[in-house]
Write a structure and sequence with these properties.
422 residues, alpha/beta, EreA/ChaN-like  fold, nine-stranded mixed β-sheet, disordered C terminus
Length: 422
C-alpha cells in the first residue's frame, strides 16, 4: 500500500497512548482470549518491558490470568517462580531471584524493569491460596546442562528410584564437559552416537511415574519440564550443527509444547501471558519465514487453540536506543536505534504524528493486508547496517491481532551479572 493511503488509514485507526498507561482499549480488545502473546521488536528496549508489565498486571487483576511464560530458560525462571510464590528456601528478593539468569544475554531478564514486575508479583501472591497464585515460567530450550543438574538434585532430595536411570542417561554427556556445541558437533560429525535415546527414555519414565503418583503438582511439573528441556535441547544442538531451519523449529515447537503443558497442568480455566520477541509471537505465515520452512509460537498456538482463543500483540519503535551486542557473547552496549527505514511500517506509523499509539488489526485486513518491511532487532545488532537484515516482510494484519507503537524508546536497564555462554 502506498504511504499516501497507509498513513491516513493508521491515523484513522490508531488510538493514542499517553506514557503507555492508556490500556483500556487493549484490555477490552483481548476480551476472553485464553492465550495472550506480548511481543517486542528488540530484547533491549525499556518501554517494551514496562508496557508489557502494565498489560500483564491488568490481565492478572481483571481477567484472572495466572500463568506468565517468557523467552527464558526454565531453571532460571523457576527460581523467579519460587520467589514470587514464597516457597521455602527461595531467593530473598526479586533481584536475588533474577541473579539466577547467568547465561548470556542475561540482560533479557536480569534488568530493573523485570525486577519491578517480579516484586509486584511477589506482593500480589501474598495471602493467596496456592492454587490462586500467579506463576512465572521459562519457555526456552538452551539449558541442557542446567536442566540435567536440576533433575539430579530433585531425584536425590526425594530419594527417587529414578535417580540411577537419570545418572545413567546423563553419563552419556560427560565427555563434552558442559559444552553444548561440542556435544552437537560430536553427535553430528563424528562416529559417536547421540544421547537422544537415553534422555527420551528418562522423560517417559518421569511422565509415567507422575501419572501413577499424582501430587506435589508444581514440583513434579518442574521435574518433567526439565526432562523435556533435556530432550529438546539435545535435539536442538544437533540440529544447529546441521544448519537450516530445523533448529529454529525445534525451539519454537518446544516453546509451544511448554505452553500446552502449563495450560493442561493448571486446568481448563487456566489462561497464559507469553512474553517473546515478535519473531516468535507473530504468525510466521505472515512473513518470509514461511518460505524457509519455519514455524513459530504465534502460528502453532493459533493452529492448536483457534484464532479466537489467541491474541497476539506486536511492538515496534521509530527511533531511540537499545541494549545489544555486536557479536554473540560480546559486551553489552548502549546503542542508538536510527530512524526507521523509508517505506517501513515503523516510518508509516511515525508519519501519522500520533506518537505512541495502539492499533487493532482484527476486522481491518483489507487495509493492512499487504506486505511491508517491519523492523526486528535481536541481541546482536549493527545499527549502521540494519537495512540489510533487520526488516522482515510482514502482512501486519495477519501476523498480529494488534500493535503497540512507541515512537521514541530508550535502552533497557540491565543488572550487572557474570555471564556463562551457550
Amino acid at each position: 500500500m502506498h504511504k499516501s493511503v497507509l498513513v491516513p488509514s493508521i491515523r484513522l485507526d490508531a488510538v493514542p497512548m499517553q506514557d503507555g498507561k492508556d490500556l483500556d482499549e487493549i484490555v477490552a480488545a483481548i476480551g476472553e482470549s485464553r492465550i495472550v502473546l506480548l511481543g517486542e521488536a528488540s530484547h533491549g528496549t525499556s518501554e517494551f518491558y514496562s508496557v508489557r508489565s502494565a498489560i500483564t498486571k491488568r490481565l492478572i487483576e481483571e481477567k484472572g490470568f495466572q500463568l506468565i511464560a517468557v523467552e527464558g530458560d526454565w531453571p532460571s525462571c523457576y527460581e523467579v517462580n519460587r520467589f514470587i510464590k514464597n516457597y521455602s528456601n527461595s531467593p530473598t528478593s526479586a533481584r536475588a531471584a533474577l541473579g539466577s539468569f547467568k547465561r548470556w544475554p542475561t540482560w533479557m531478564w536480569a534488568n530493573e524493569e523485570i525486577e519491578e514486575l517480579v516484586g509486584w508479583l511477589h506482593t500480589f501472591n501474598q495471602n493467596r491460596t496456592e492454587q490462586a497464585k500467579v506463576g512465572f515460567y521459562g519457555l526456552d530450550v538452551y539449558s541442557l546442562w542446567e536442566s540435567m543438574d536440576e533433575i539430579i538434585r530433585y531425584l536425590k532430595e526425594t530419594n527417587s528410584p529414578q535417580l540411577e536411570q537419570a545418572l545413567q542417561a546423563f553419563s552419556c554427556f560427560e565427555p563434552y564437559h558442559g559444552d553444548e556445541q561440542h556435544y552437537g558437533a560430536a553427535a553430528v560429525f563424528s562416529l559417536s552416537e547421540s544421547c537422544e535415546n537415553e534422555v527420551v527414555e528418562l522423560l517417559r519414565s518421569i511422565r509415567k511415574e507422575r501419572l501413577a503418583n499424582p501430587g506435589a503438582e508444581e514440583q513434579e511439573l518442574n521435574l518433567e519440564m526439565n526432562a523435556l528441556v533435556a530432550v529438546h535441547a539435545e535435539q536442538y544442538y544437533r540440529a544447529m550443527m546441521r544448519g537450516g531451519s530445523e533448529s529454529w523449529n525445534i525451539r519454537d515447537e518446544h516453546m509451544t509444547e511448554t505452553i500446552d503443558k502449563l495450560l493442561a497442568t493448571h486446568g481448563p480455566d487456566a489462561k497464559i501471558i507469553v512474553w517473546e520477541h515478535n519473531t516468535h509471537i507473530g504468525d510466521a505465515r505472515a512473513t518470509d519465514m514461511a518460505d524457509e520452512g519455519m514455524v513459530n509460537v504465534g502460528q502453532l498456538v493459533r493452529e492448536r487453540y483457534g484464532h479466537e482463543q489467541v491474541y497476539a500483540i506486536g511492538f515496534g519503535t521509530y527511533e531511540g536506543s537499545v541494549i545489544a551486542s555486536q557479536k554473540w557473547g560480546g559486551d553489552i552496549e548502549h546503542m542508538p536505534v536510527p530512524p526507521a527505514m523509508k517505506g517501513s511500517w515503523e516510518e508509516a506509523v511515525h508519519e501519522t504524528g500520533l506518537g505512541d499509539c495502539w492499533i487493532e488489526f482484527r476486522g481491518r485486513k483489507e487495509v493492512y493486508g499487504e506486505s511491508i518491511g517491519h523492523r526486528a532487532i535481536g541481541v546482536i545488532y549493527h545499527p549502521r547496517a540494519e537495512r540489510y537484515g533487520n526488516y522482515v516482510p510482514t502482512v501486519m494484519a495477519e501476523r498480529y491481532d494488534g500493535f503497540i507503537f512507541i515512537d521514541r524508546t530508550k535502552a533497557l536497564h540491565p543488572h550487572a551479572i557474570e555471564y556463562t555462554f551457550a
